[in-house]
Write a structure and sequence with these properties.
The chain has 361 residues and is an alpha/beta fold. 40% of the residues lie in helices and 13% in strands. The strands form three sheets. It has a six-stranded parallel sheet with strand order 9-8-7-10-11-12, with helices on both faces. A four-stranded parallel sheet has the order 3-4-5-6. Strands 1-2 form a two-stranded parallel sheet. α8 packs across α12 (312-324). The radius of gyration is 22 Å and the shape is globular.
Length: 361
C-alpha cells in the first residue's frame, strides 16, 4: 500500500528490511532489501475453519514462524514492525516467540469490524500483552484501542508521512463552472453515495458544475448506476486509478475537494485519510465529515468545512457556502495547507520516535 511505502521510505535513523508474501508494483514503488516468504498450504485450511466453523482467528504455522525468525536473526533485526492489527492477530505465534521488540500499527479498518467479535477477544488480549508498543494514525484511533483493551502506556501516535507537495493558490471559477473532486478507493466508508447525492443538489444551483471521482474499487458499477438514476451521469467522471503525478494535476485543476467518510455497518472507519491530507497540502478547499481522525486535520470553518456523516443535504450546503463566499474559499485553502504541513509534514510526524524508545540504552 502506498502509505506504507511512504512510511518505510521516509524512515531515518534505521535501515529497513521488508518481509512480505506478495510483491506487486515494484516498478512504481522500488524498495530494497525485500524478502518474499512462501505461504503455508495449511493457512487455507485454517481460514476455512475460522470462517465456516466459527473458530478463533487463524494463525500462521510453526514453519512460517520459524522462517520469519530465521530472516530476523540472519539480518540482525533489532525491531519488528507488523503493519495492521488484523495481520498481527494472524502472526501471534511470532509475537509470542520473538526475541526482539514488536511494534504493531493500527490504521482504521483494523480497529473495528472483526476485532469486535467475541472470538477475537483472547487474541487481542495476547496481542496487546506481547506487543512492545502499539502505534496508530490518529487520536481517535488511540481512544478506540483503549476501548479494545490496549494499555494506554503502550499506545503511541505515529502520523502518516505526508510527501512534499507544491501549494497552489486556488481561486473560485469566474464562470460558475465548479469542478469537484474526490480521490480514494470506491468502498463504503468513503461516502461516495453521499457525494453523488450532494452533487445532484449542488447542480440545481450550479448546473455547469462537474464531479471527478478518481480511484478504483468494488462499488464502481453501483456508483455509475446511481449517478444515472440521479440524472447526473453526464457530469460525473469516473477516471479510475491514477498515478501520483496525475492526482497532483487533478488537485490543481479542480475547485473543491470532497471526502465525506462514514462509518460502515461493520464498523469500518478512517484514521486520517491520506487523500484528504494531500488535498489540504495542495491548497484546494476541502469538505469532509466529522469522522474518525478527520477533525484532527480540519478545524471546521478554519482549515476546511466539516459536516455530519451520511448527510447529502449538509454536504451540498457546505459546497454552496464555499461557492458563495470567495473570502472563506481562499482562507480555508491557505489555512488547510499550512496546518497539515505543520502537523503532518515529515519533520513533525515523529515516524521513528517509537522505534528509538525500544533500543537498548
Amino acid at each position: 500500500m502506498y502509505h506504507i511505502y511512504r512510511q518505510i521510505s521516509a524512515l531515518s535513523g534505521f535501515s529497513c528490511l521488508v518481509v512480505t508474501q506478495k510483491v506487486q508494483n515494484l516498478n512504481l514503488f522500488p524498495f530494497q532489501p525485500l524478502i518474499s516468504l512462501p505461504r503455508s498450504p495449511w493457512r487455507w485450511w485454517s481460514r476455512i475453519k475460522e470462517r465456516l466453523l466459527g473458530k478463533n482467528p487463524w494463525q500462521i504455522s510453526q514453519k512460517e514462524t520459524k522462517q520469519l525468525r530465521k530472516v530476523l536473526e540472519e539480518n540482525g533485526a533489532s525491531i519488528l514492525h507488523i503493519f495492521f492489527g488484523t495481520t498481527a492477530i494472524h502472526m501471534l505465534p511470532v509475537l509470542q516467540s520473538s526475541p526482539i521488540p514488536v511494534v504493531v500499527s493500527f490504521h482504521g479498518a483494523d480497529v473495528g469490524c472483526g476485532m469486535l467479535c467475541p472470538s477475537h477477544k483472547e487474541a487481542l488480549s495476547t496481542l496487546f500483552e506481547r506487543a512492545a508498543l502499539v502505534t496508530c494514525r490518529s487520536l481517535d484511533l488511540a481512544g478506540k484501542l483503549r476501548l479494545l483493551g490496549c494499555p494506554p502506556d503502550k499506545i503511541r501516535l505515529q502520523r502518516t508521512v505526508l510527501p512534499d507537495l507544491p501549494f497552489h493558490r486556488h481561486l473560485p471559477p469566474s464562470d460558475g463552472r465548479w469542478k469537484l473532486l474526490q480521490i480514494g478507493r470506491l468502498i463504503p466508508k468513503k461516502g461516495l453515495h453521499t457525494t453523488l447525492q450532494a452533487f445532484a443538489l449542488f447542480k440545481q444551483k450550479y448546473p455547469d458544475s462537474s464531479l471527478t471521482i478518481a480511484g478504483q474499487g468494488p462499488l464502481r458499477k453501483e456508483l455509475e448506476l446511481f449517478s444515472r438514476r440521479l440524472g447526473i451521469a453526464s457530469d460525473v467522471h469516473f477516471v479510475g486509478f491514477q498515478s501520483q503525478e496525475v492526482l497532483q494535476r487533478l488537485l490543481l485543476e479542480h475547485s473543491i475537494f470532497l471526502h465525506p467518510s462514514e462509518t460502515t455497518r461493520t464498523g469500518d472507519t478512517e484514521g486520517v485519510p491520506n487523500a484528504l491530507l494531500e488535498a489540504l497540502a495542495s491548497g484546494i478547499p476541502c469538505i469532509a465529515t466529522q469522522h474518525g481522525g478527520i477533525p484532527e486535520a480540519i478545524e471546521n470553518g478554519c482549515d476546511g468545512l466539516l459536516v455530519e456523516e451520511k448527510n447529502p443535504d449538509a454536504l451540498a450546503q457546505a459546497m454552496s457556502l464555499l461557492a458563495e463566499s470567495p473570502a472563506l474559499y481562499e482562507r480555508v485553502g491557505r489555512s488547510g495547507a499550512k496546518k497539515v504541513r505543520r502537523d503532518f509534514g515529515k519533520g513533525s510526524s515523529g515516524i521513528a520516535a517509537p522505534y528509538f524508545s525500544l533500543l537498548p540504552k
